[in-house]
Automatic annotation (TrEMBL):
It is an enzyme of class 2 (transferase). Pfam families: GST_C_3, GST_N. It comes from Ancylostoma duodenale. GO terms for molecular function: glutathione transferase activity. Its EC number is 2.5.1.18. This is glutathione transferase.
Length: 205
């Protein structure tokens, strides 16, 4: 199969899919589209946005749809129908959380104007406490140290990548959440993922 992955130069909504390729050791063309080239490419994308995965010429849009496709293809989506459902639910919960914190995230990353400290207090911290609280509950029930089942899934990648990004602007982001910190260390120490993180293009987010 021939894979082409289209996204902007940063990690953002495309990073989990890139990590899945790295974990699986599967070759793909990592097409990082510069901002100035995006207007020309945009009309060719199904929803006028990225990321988009092209598989033998067929396009798959939407970041979570792509991650789910790759995770199922490569064995990182859960080992039973129940595990798959829980992993998908964890991913969907992150998407809800991401929408909730946009008022902080965009100004903090320099993507929009706004009072970052005010947004941290009123938007990020309450949402973080709920989201990381939910994830902590799953980890406390886990015997493997992963969010669902006995093996790494794309839900673990989503959480770990989120922590990595948020610590860049809020170093104490996980203070008071020891299970989350342990989970981050466990996930990012997986050899193939560790190698990818050390060698991937360095971007702010």
């Amino acid at each position: 199969m021939e894979y082409k992955f289209y996204y902007f130069p940063g990690r953002g909504l495309g990073e989990v899919s890139r990590q899945l390729f790295a974990l699986a050791g599967v070759h793909y063309e990592d097409i990082r589209v510069p901002k100035e080239q995006w207007p020309e490419l945009k009309p060719k994308m199904p929803f006028g946005q990225m990321p988009v995965l092209e598989v033998d010429g067929q396009q798959i849009p939407q970041s979570l749809a792509i991650a789910r496709y790759l995770a199922r293809k490569f064995g990182y989506a859960g080992k039973t129908p129940y595990e798959e459902a829980i992993v998908d639910a964890l991913a969907d919960q992150y998407k809800d959380f991401y929408v909730e914190i946009k008022g902080y995230y965009y100004p903090a990353m320099g993507l929009a104007e706004g009072d970052v400290e005010e947004a941290k207090k009123n938007i990020l911290i309450p949402a973080r406490d709920r989201y990381l609280g939910y994830m902590t509950d799953f980890l406390k029930k886990s015997s493997s140290g992963f969010l669902a089942g006995q093996e790494l899934t794309y839900a673990d990648l989503i959480l770990a990548e989120h922590i990595h990004t948020m610590r860049s602007v809020f170093p104490e982001y996980t203070k008071g959440f020891p299970e989350i910190e342990e989970h981050y260390e466990k996930v990012t120490s997986v050899p193939a993922l560790k190698k990818w993180m050390e060698t991937r293009p360095q971007t702010n987010f």
